[in-house]
Design a protein that fits this description.
The protein has twelve helices and 25 strands. It folds into two domains: about 220 residues, Rossmann fold (3-Layer(aba) Sandwich); about 190 residues, Rossmann fold, CATH 3.40.50. The model has no long low-confidence stretch (mean pLDDT about 95). About 50% of the residues are buried. It is an alpha/beta fold and about 425 residues long.
Length: about 425
């Protein structure tokens, strides 16, 4: 049982700077000798990569829409074991959830019984910050806003106007961070670029940590942390896809949920990792191969030339190993991938599917998934879909029947031939 305390970093809306501020807090506390355990609300894959680099400890996803309360509490407890502080970055605005209204950062804070630090973008406002903060603080009795961090403050005069106004709320202002063009992370079609793609990420982290150390009261921030809600019970993880699993992992296959890997290891599965971009093949005796999501559209030519990787997949299919691809992995299992420039690249050819991203259309949302195939998982699953590519496929047996967050029927998802299967859905947990 963890004895750590924690807090949640939220904001009134997306784009307020909570990711950068969370990174700065993690790095600043770590450099002061505090052992920080990072977590990310929701299904996001990219922010956890940044949080893990800042904390020097892998981040975990805590998704209150897809995961049961027992799962969330158990994961939070496990993540904070051996740490002094659990720091959870929220998602979107504090009360923004799925289309059915559930799954918000506020929901997670209430469930874990953790206080909230509200990051407010102060750009182009002054005294109006007080009713904004008061509204969020009083919206739901079970959600405790314990402090405010002001971001993108224009001047000392601007700061005084803001902090004077906040006095009426009774909620302490923990700091006011000036505008700084250096505190920006580049973005692309699925969100932020990955930290490994920033040539100066460590320098960026230094700037963020310095800003937090200079302008935020870290002692007061740590003092407002509260103990986690107790984990209620042991929750069985999703079963491993096989007992000897080969998992693709490199710059084209980066979207892996740590809670799944940890669960598979806890159930005795042997996990190995290989790089398709380096033309590596999976274990020759693997009984399951997992191709997770990522950015195959950025590496079409390299993957097309990876004959050893593709031969390894074909050999696994021929020996009846389970081969499962999610989103980018599903794209690679197909016949071809058409990149942003309209160039077609030959993929593994295990499913008669052609995917393309030269006509981008954003598809985003939670999914309830039903399957009856070879996946060793419950028939009802919760997942998430986020991509700009599209798939054209011949008449095939779909992998999943799907509905969206409000129960609206979606077109069947993915394809399955024998024990080769995939779809655009990222599976998170059992329904």
């Amino acid at each position: 049982m963890s004895l750590a305390k924690g807090f949640v970093i939220a904001a009134p809306r997306s784009g307020s700077g909570k990711t950068v501020i969370t990174l700065g807090i993690l790095a600043a506390l770590r450099r002061r000798g505090v052992i920080v355990a990072p977590a990310k609300a929701g299904p996001d894959y990219i922010d956890p990569a940044f949080l893990g680099r800042a904390a020097m400890r892998d981040a975990v996803n805590l998704d209150p829409w897809s995961m049961s309360p027992a799962r969330l509490k158990a994961l939070a407890d496990m993540q904070s074991t051996g740490a002094d502080l659990l720091v959870v970055e929220g998602v979107m605005g504090m009360f923004d959830g799925a289309a059915d209204g559930f799954g918000s950062t506020g929901d997670l804070a209430e469930l874990l019984d953790l206080p909230v630090v509200l990051v407010v973008d102060a750009d182009r406002q002054s005294q109006s910050v007080a009713p904004l903060v008061a509204g969020f603080a009083n919206w739901r009795p079970g959600v405790r806003v314990a402090g405010v961090i002001l971001n993108r403050v224009a001047s000392a005069k601007h700061e005084r106007m803001l902090t004077d106004a906040l006095l009426a709320t009774g909620i302490p202002c923990l700091g006011a961070i000036p505008r700084n063009p250096a505190l920006v992370i580049p973005e692309r079609h699925l969100g932020l670029v990955l930290p490994g793609e920033m040539a100066s990420f460590e320098n960026f982290l230094d700037v963020a940590a310095e800003a937090i150390g200079d302008y935020v009261d870290l002692e007061q921030l740590q003092a407002l942390a509260a103990p986690l809600a107790a984990a209620e019970q042991v929750v069985a993880p999703l079963a491993p896809l096989g007992q000897r699993m080969a998992i693709a992992r490199d710059d084209a296959f980066v979207f892996l949920y740590p809670h799944l890997l940890d669960g598979w290891r806890s159930m005795g599965a042997e996990l190995s990792f290989f790089s398709p971009l380096a033309n590596e093949a999976p274990w020759e005796d693997a009984d399951a191969i997992y191709l997770p999501g990522g950015y195959p559209e950025l590496h079409g030519a390299t993957l097309a030339a990876a004959d050893g990787f593709k031969a390894g997949l074909a050999g696994a299919r021929d020996r009846d190993a389970l081969i499962y691809g999610e989103c980018g992995g599903f794209m690679v299992l197909g016949e071809a991938l058409v990149d942003k420039a309209g160039v077609s690249h030959a993929m593994a050819g295990l499913l008669p599917v052609v995917t393309r991203i030269d006509r981008p259309k954003r598809i985003l949302g939670y999914r309830r998934l039903v399957h009856g195939g070879a996946l060793p998982w419950p028939g009802h699953l919760n997942g998430h879909e986020f991509h700009y590519s599209s798939a054209k496929q011949s008449r095939l047996t779909p992998l999943f029947a799907a509905t969206d967050a409000v129960g609206q029927a979606m077109p069947p998802m993915g394809a399955v031939i024998g024990k080769v299967m995939g779809s655009y859905a990222h599976v998170i947990d059992a329904a």
